[in-house]
Amino acid sequence: xxxxxTANALDQIDHVAIRVGDIDEAVAWYMKTFKCEVAYKxxxxxxxxxxxIRLALVVPSQxxxxxxxxxxxxxxxxxxRPHRDGTRSTYIADPSGNWVEVLxxx
Length: 106
What we know:
By secondary structure, the chain is mostly beta strands. It contains one helix and eight strands.
């Protein structure tokens, strides 16, 4: 879900990532409980698509819980690394220690 880049456009939240103990169990629960779609799933993370945002389910050994935000100037936050889903991003911490994944708008 890539945002439309314009000079005055606000940055967009792409996803929120929460930690789960078991990817398959978590995906099954969310699919049974809510109307959503699986955009991606493997043994270490899954991406669920809802009507207004995506929810990432991550295992603690692979990803921190975080908020993914598209930024037109993502490069200024650090080296952007490619991700399995084709995005490029870097992680930063806010003043309270919450992780933010800053994604490049391509």
